[in-house]
Amino acid sequence: MIKKKYFFLCFALVIVSISINLKVTNSKKEISMIIKKKDALQFDIDLNEVNWVYITRPENLYKLNEEGYNFQPILFSDLINLKMDKE
Question: Over the stretch 31-55, which tens digit does the pLDDT of each residue have?
Fold first, then answer.
């Protein structure tokens, strides 16, 4: 009778340890995937920040404007003319 108890207890401990090991392994895989996604997102954020800084440099803004938009700067006299036109 006692041997059956010990056998059952050992069997239960083996099953519990295997299930805990599987859960730990699964959690490690999930953590690894999340870290990889975080690193990829951080790389994208850093790349976007670098691109934004490059694009918003004044000389690059002037170049982009000349190449594609040909906008003229708003002058103070233009603002005064707009107010007079509204009245």
Answer: 999 999 999 999 999 989 888 887 7
- Which residue in this structure is represented by tokens 């990829």? 40
d(CA 8, CA 3): 8
- Rounded to two decimals, the pTM is 0.55
In order, the DSSP letters of 40-69 are HHHHHHHHHHHHHHHHTSHHHHHHHIIIII
Q: Write down the domain spans for the chain.
A: 2-86
Euclidean distance between CA atoms 39 and 45, whole angstroms: 10
CA distances for 62 relative to 12, 43, 49, 75, angstroms: 74, 28, 20, 16
